[in-house]
Known about the structure:
The complex is a heterotetramer, with 2 copies of chain A and 2 copies of chain C.
Chain A: H1 26-40, E1 47-51, E2 66-69, H2 75-85, E3 90-96, H3 97-103, H4 105-114, E4 118-124, H5 159-165, E5 170-175, H6 179-191, E6 196-201, H7 213-216, E7 225-228, E8 235-236, E9 243-247, E10 253-257, H8 276-282, E11 292-299, H9 305-317, H10 324-328, E12 334-336
Parallel strand pairs in A: 1-2, 1-3, 3-4, 4-6, 5-6, 7-11
Antiparallel strand pairs in A: 5-11, 8-9, 9-10
Helix pairs in contact in A: 1-6, 3-4
Chain C: E1 6-10, E2 12-20, H1 25-39, E3 42-48, E4 63-71, E5 84-87, H2 90-96, E6 105-109, H3 115-121, E7 137-141, H4 143-150, H5 152-156, H6 162-167, H7 169-180, H8 186-195, H9 200-219, E8 225-229, E9 237-243, H10 244-259, E10 263-267, H11 274-281, E11 289-292, H12 296-308, E12 312-317, H13 319-335, E13 339-345, H14 362-367, E14 377-379, H15 385-400, E15 403-409, H16 410-414, E16 416-420, E17 470-472, H17 487-502, E18 521-526, H18 530-542, E19 547-552, E20 554-556, H19 562-567, E21 572-576, H20 581-590, E22 595-598, H21 607-620
Helix pairs in contact in C: 1-7, 2-3, 4-9, 7-9, 8-9, 10-11, 10-15, 12-13, 18-21
Amino acid sequence: MTEGRTLTRKDFTSDQEVRWCPGCGDYAILAAIQGLLPELGAVPERTVFVSGIGCAARFPYYMDTYGFHGIHGRAPAIATGLAVSRPDLDVWVVTGDGDALSIGGNHLIHALRRNVGVKILLFNNEIYGLTKGQYSPTSREGQITKSSPMGAIDHPFNPVSLALGAEATFVARTLDNDRDHLQTVLRAAYEHRGSAFVEILQNCIVFNDDAFLSVRDRATGASNRIELRHGEAIVFGAEDDRRAVVTKDGGGVEILPLDEAGGRVVVHDAHVDDPTRAFALSRLTDRDGGPAPFGIFRQVQRPRYEALLVDQVERAGEQGRASLQALLETSNVWDVP
Amino acid sequence: MTEGRTLTRKDFTSDQEVRWCPGCGDYAILAAIQGLLPELGAVPERTVFVSGIGCAARFPYYMDTYGFHGIHGRAPAIATGLAVSRPDLDVWVVTGDGDALSIGGNHLIHALRRNVGVKILLFNNEIYGLTKGQYSPTSREGQITKSSPMGAIDHPFNPVSLALGAEATFVARTLDNDRDHLQTVLRAAYEHRGSAFVEILQNCIVFNDDAFLSVRDRATGASNRIELRHGEAIVFGAEDDRRAVVTKDGGGVEILPLDEAGGRVVVHDAHVDDPTRAFALSRLTDRDGGPAPFGIFRQVQRPRYEALLVDQVERAGEQGRASLQALLETSNVWDVP
Amino acid sequence: MTTTETSETLHRVVIRFAGDSGDGMQLTGDRFTVQTAEVGNDLATLPDFPAEIRAPAGTTAGVSSFQLQFSDEDILTPGDAPDVLVVMNAAALKKNIGDLQRGGTLIVNTDGFDRANLKKAGYLSSPLDDGSLEPYRVYELSLTDLTTRSLQDLVESRSIRSKDAARAKNMFALGLVSWMFSRPVDTTVAWLEQKFARAPAIAQANVHALKAGYNFGETTELFAHRYEVKPAKLPPGRYRTISGNTALAYGLIAASQRCGLDLFYGSYPITPASDILHELARHKRFGVRTFQAEDEIAAVGAALGASFGGALAVTASSGPGIALKAETIGLAVAVELPLVVIDVQRGGPSTGLPTKTEQADLLQVMFGRNGEAPVPVVAAQSPGDCFDAAIEAVRIALTYRTPVMLLTDGYLANGSEPWRLPDLAALPDLDPAFATAPNGEDGTFLPFLRDPSTLARPWALPGTPGLEHRIGGLEKADVTGNISYDPDNHHRMTELRQAKIDGIARDLPPLGLDGAPTDDLLVVGWGSTYGPIREAVRRVRADGGKVACLHLRHLNPFPADLGDLLRSFDRILVPEMNMGQLRLLLRARYLVDAEGYNKVRGQPFRAAELHAKIVGLLRNADRMPVATS
Amino acid sequence: MTTTETSETLHRVVIRFAGDSGDGMQLTGDRFTVQTAEVGNDLATLPDFPAEIRAPAGTTAGVSSFQLQFSDEDILTPGDAPDVLVVMNAAALKKNIGDLQRGGTLIVNTDGFDRANLKKAGYLSSPLDDGSLEPYRVYELSLTDLTTRSLQDLVESRSIRSKDAARAKNMFALGLVSWMFSRPVDTTVAWLEQKFARAPAIAQANVHALKAGYNFGETTELFAHRYEVKPAKLPPGRYRTISGNTALAYGLIAASQRCGLDLFYGSYPITPASDILHELARHKRFGVRTFQAEDEIAAVGAALGASFGGALAVTASSGPGIALKAETIGLAVAVELPLVVIDVQRGGPSTGLPTKTEQADLLQVMFGRNGEAPVPVVAAQSPGDCFDAAIEAVRIALTYRTPVMLLTDGYLANGSEPWRLPDLAALPDLDPAFATAPNGEDGTFLPFLRDPSTLARPWALPGTPGLEHRIGGLEKADVTGNISYDPDNHHRMTELRQAKIDGIARDLPPLGLDGAPTDDLLVVGWGSTYGPIREAVRRVRADGGKVACLHLRHLNPFPADLGDLLRSFDRILVPEMNMGQLRLLLRARYLVDAEGYNKVRGQPFRAAELHAKIVGLLRNADRMPVATS
Ligand SMILES: Cc1ncc(C[n+]2csc(CCOP(=O)(O)OP(=O)(O)O)c2C)c(N)n1
Ligand SMILES: Cc1ncc(C[n+]2csc(CCOP(=O)(O)OP(=O)(O)O)c2C)c(N)n1
Ligand code: SF4
Ligand code: SF4
Ligand SMILES: [Mg+2]
Ligand SMILES: [Mg+2]
């Protein structure tokens, strides 16, 4: 797609000053994506970033591509219209946990079930950043925020479970400060034909610092990250503390020390049509400060919405060239001399 | 709760003429509920039916209880406000597949994750009835409707999977023409402390007749209904064709002839905290004209949203009687003589 | 022709079919309309049905009706009071008899008057026996029975069930009335055969019933009269009947062909707008992409996304859905992209009267968004005019890079009239005029550098190298489009957005005043009141009153010559099916003391009530010849 | 006091603190406000900050500022141009210097002017060296350095990091300015100790810096002057400073106590309304239930549900969120339940200028719904007045069973002023007057049988036996509330809903005209322009102009005496921070040729610009004494 041009990250970097707080996790994600796109063979003019409102949603301004900073929650809808009318474009959505899961929850789940070819990157910082620190649908029970001075009482969504329940064909999780992992996941999302949902854990240093400490800490985080690799047994942890994900009686999976796992270690299959195992894996979370899975939970093929629509348009067109005059005359006509 | 009154279905029947098409599945559901409520000990004045817009949503008019016919898709929101401010009431939501899953999808999933004590009855007829026959988010791929003359291209939601992905604590499925089953499920929903989501397959005789033929047919339907009973092995089918639900390699469940099932037959546990097995069961559907599960997929305890909120209000109140004067004087004050 | 029959020639007839929701009255009316169009009459129709799919059978709540006026001269409305009323049951009689002209013809299906029917309709005794129908010329017929008997063979041969036979009674009635008004039934025969192609026995039954009804008229001696209404002298051309929703869909397709952009139609079903979606979904061969969204917000959001991608983007709804779209329309104002938003108005507030007509969304579409967010507003005035109105809305949207609100209503949507097919070659040129090259110094692209004459900004499509840019809802710096919180820039941009919309008035042709500035009264209208207003004005003039009228296609901006015109009259009347919304705008803008005639009854105005109102005003001012009083 | 110092007495001072978003200017301003209030001055504040949490450090986009006017007489605005400007870096200078009065005092933190700072601010050479600051009385101080040096001990003892030390420079500046204007810092010391109770070292550092700044003023010989502003002669009572959002929250709590209903507050965060949610969430002990909904539609939906259940139901948002609530507000109109909807207006259209103020939602709240859906509109005019406005909105909602729109804006929300605590016993009586028994014959309950005087319908709560009933958005039959598609009933109900809202005017006290009907000009305003308008009018009068003014609390319905008042003036000016929305309503209703002064700059009006406008108008009409020209 680059047509002989050699593109670099600079070709994807706009001249606008980046307006996030110093130390915000968004910077790393931006840099990773600006670095990745040229490698993927994307070209700026055929790339569009669509967003809603929030800190994360400022993303399009910093990309020297086409961009649409929409309104709160509606990015998946705007992106759907764009992708349906222009299947030739690479359409990305950048959204936050409030934008995507609170006000925009419905558009998100509908885009996923339709399998519109849009890549949805959810920057999950478990807080409303832009509006200065209210709890979000991913904030933890009991979390003290400006709007929950006595602790949040809402049971949070698990974004991966929700996406799987909404029939998503590609579901993954990664995090802001592991550039390689981020880029690997985003590459797969880009190459997936259909909608891709990627939850990116992102640190909001101002209003929710260290929310993901157990998996994000530079020193100890890696050992709590359960890496999902298609076709491989799910084993993780520090050298001296290897652990495995094993099947559980009554459905679901759990974590055991590797040496107690016996033959029950789960071999990850992201391509299986039944989303149950992926759902089981999504129930392992870092909410209690423990380990959590990262990587691609699910990646299956289903026709893209826009391809099906274009197909109908083309099939309709095969009935012969459309004549406006003939259309107007479909009903009985009569002539007045 | 009936305080010595003996109530009958008549006490729950309003004087308004029922305005559904002759033969509509909604009639049976109405009758079943009017018959059930007195049995449950519900009283008309403490019962409220809230709905959105659609054929199903006309339901409140026919109940001699309090009722609120809202606007399209917003019933869960209205009901949430009512339940939060009045935890003493029995609040029911009656909604359709368009009302609940299309325009109202977001409110539905948020009500479920919050576990507001509202009973949500989704009359799923896989069509927009009131607006005369467009496809809905549960319509089948390829379905020909007024708005999909070449066949619907949207991949449908599976309402049970979606509810489970949204952290619902009570999830069940039943159908319009099996009164006993309907009443059993609704009784359990009523008794559940928290939000209950019940999908009721409902036949729209005018715009989508026989959509659920395989499980609803008077003669053969019963043998295709996989009855889920807590604590029991999941076995179903005609006398001469017993089948079982068994675990599947790689996660999920499948159906086998009972005699081939071996030791893998799933024993249903609706109370297990991990929703994975319930999710697995939800993937068995009648889309291809085969069997589908009915009954309670999941029923677990989690504090009700309104109880948590009332608790905060009460705890705050324990700090002593609230004085408005003191509130106004929280900031530094000075006196001008 | 049988010998007993005399044929009388009439100039205009108003007929109404009324029955249960399940009786097929809409279909009967539709077919009678087509047959009438074929005879060359001018006509106008008024379907009227309950909000329920099938409201309780036999009750007045369940009555569905279809009214049609046809004439040998040009007519403007479906008529005030029917000359002929056909009722299929007691409830239909109860609900409609009050409207029938004294001396009018009443055809009654007596099979719809058994005790149960009477009770459901709320009759204590049968109106057929109590003398209450004396003022009318009543024909009591066992329509159901006549129909089933005519289909006995088919039932006996088990080709159809006897239920099916009884259902065909509407075709029997249609046949009878067709005979009565000398309309040929051949096209209906052909239509039935096509419609029931998959159920030939049903087709046969309906055709049979239709012909049986026709023959019944011809052979029975019951009817003294047969009527004829000669063809109307319409302007020459090729005609068809068309409803507003169909005309609107065709207008959008025509516009899309004309500007060379694929049509993207994002919509969520809602009465009475859904039929536009249904119609467009059938025409994918024109490159139309219909998207049934999860809600109205997604529908307009997707349309706006498609517009960003270069499609001809359209969304439609009725009042409640338009309210939901408000925030996104505001975004469209901010990003300045072409978009057509159609509001097929219905009775409000809230869910209101979903199947009834009203014009009460004008102020909503003018002002229903946060901040200063001006949007052009265009309204259609008759079913066929929806075609032209759609093209005009597209023209403005493309030329000015702006969302445009297009108003129709339930009456226009479902009502139909003969429509002269437009000369396609004469349709306006529509040019998307995409940006293709950088417009700034040193090769940069300035997405908010405006065209000096229209103030429109460039429309640069993704896929175009070198024009990469970002748009959004935050305030943008003039010219560059970068985010700007500068106070003066915000004021300037607000003024520019307003000036752009105001400037549309430059394109508008001079207003066509029907009448003279020296007339005693000016009647100003907009939208579907066109027909009744014109008809009333005609009648007033026939009575000797001097009255002018003006019908506005453009409600924002107002045409440049409107103010002078208004001020040349001493008295202004603004009839609206709302509580005075256009009136408010006219008063605020031009400080003219316009008076209103305001009714929200879910029904189009009757020419008679407007006539009475106008005559009353003229009389009060001593401006009405006494002779007519 | 040291001997070098002379103390000068001033009547009013305008001071502005400006720095980077991270420099704590809002906090500094807030504290200075409290200290100033304590001294007994009248005051008004204007916070101004970027939409980003922390926009790029060092750039003009990242500048945050806080302006305060204080005086020994009563004042109405935060002042036009500052007399004193404190800037923490080059960008703050660049962005604010244009506003400083010639001859004004400029305090510069020179540590914010290194090369990187200058470059980010877009300075080619340092403004400190190029003579451009000559018109001002400039004090160049190494504030950062002075602060860190004063905290050296704490850093060395590792109690705090040197980063923390540098951060305390705003407290140093506050100390210095407090000395300069003779304000005691004790309450700030106490406040700091409480705020940082969990980090005592940080508390200590800030207190230290504050005192160091104060002492620096006292000991250095740099400052020739120290100023004093005597207490203002405010009406007697107990005072505090209050921002509009806080006053609004308190008003709602007071109303809830007064009517005995628990407050249900459904909201979704949005600038500048979120602080109401934050405030209310902290007061659950008053029975307040705050519900952070998934979006604005759910927020208003839940509130309406709570209202059905008998709560005092309130929802709030800013413009974009109000647009989303439109459909549900229409439902509230149809079901006639009490509901207060607060719109804290900000710059639009669309996302617009989220942190800036504007008044451009008036027509949205009037008309932004489908169908004829009239809603009362109430507006607050100053931060403290938000308390009363909230109570008035609740009163109308309860009395008339209707949604009420309450308008404030970004300036009122965040701005603050001294506020005399109300006499709680004198607050209006609010009575929910729930229905408790059947109101129909034979013991039936008629949910739409209206109170003949208010036209309000009964409010019957679930839980009440015998009053079971159903409500909804479809048109309802008068009296019974059953679904009705009857044409005449729909017209009647539309008129009744309108008449009910219009009838609210009966309760309203006569308008208080400030001035005489014989004055040469009437200035009409609403909302937060109250201060600047009054101030401008005062100045015009001081110049000898004869001008009256009128400020509207009720925008729908208008007070009954408004028309006569307007018509008694030849010239009417309507200044609004929009393009003429109230003006449109006044012109349409009263046919008066009101002129507008319209600016949307995201900033409150300055009294000076209004003064100039008014004087200009009077001059044009030869109505201004020449002496003042
Ligand atoms: C309609 C509307 N409602 C509310 C807002 C205010 N708002 C802006 S961003 C936001 C939430 C941001 O949270 P999130 O999506 O998690 O993004 P983050 O800032 O954390 O990256 C809210 C509530 C808005 N701009 N528009
Ligand atoms: C805001 C809004 N959008 C659209 C509609 C039109 N509408 C009414 S009901 C309905 C869908 C009904 O389908 P469903 O919820 O499945 O209920 P059913 O009629 O099948 O019982 C639609 C689209 C509306 N009333 N309001
Ligand atoms: S508030 Fe949080 S998410 Fe937003 S820019 Fe700052 S650190 Fe990042
Ligand atoms: S349209 Fe379908 S769902 Fe609606 S009332 Fe008729 S049969 Fe029932
Ligand atoms: Mg967030
Ligand atoms: Mg349905």
